[in-house]
Predict the structure.
Amino acid sequence: MTTLATLYRTNYAAWAQRNADLLRARRFDELDIEHLLEELGDMSKSDRRELHSRLLVLLAHLLKWQFQYQSLSERWREFKGYSWRSTMVEQRAQLDGLLRQSPGLKSAIEEAIAEAYPAAVRLARKDTGLPETTFPETCPYSSAQILDEDYYPETA
């Protein structure tokens, strides 16, 4: 095992700094390539997990807004959906920040929406008690609508 590989297991910060120094010095043959590739792959996975998680919550709230808001506001005059709106604002702001920090994720947004949507339907179904058939089989919102801070779907 090389010194850098040992350092990776014992002192991650020192390992990262040493690899950065080697890159700056263009001493590529001394880099801990195996662990660098592992770390870069994990960074991408982490960003994609966050994208999926934030889309799931946002989509579930868009669905609740569209398919349950009307019935709740008719039952309770004081129901205005403020907590749902607040959650959507927060998730959109976090998604905006994530996409600014990792612009490469923009090319994965459509796929991430398609992957998160079924889980969002399950969450919305559990939260609302509405039958699964209430919700469209595929996501009814475009990526532009999902990310638009002023978009709220028409209520059913």
Observations:
- The CA atoms of residues 35 and 41 lie 10 Å apart.
- Residues 46-147 form one domain.
- Residues 33-75 form the longest helix (43 residues).
- The chain has a mean pLDDT of 89.
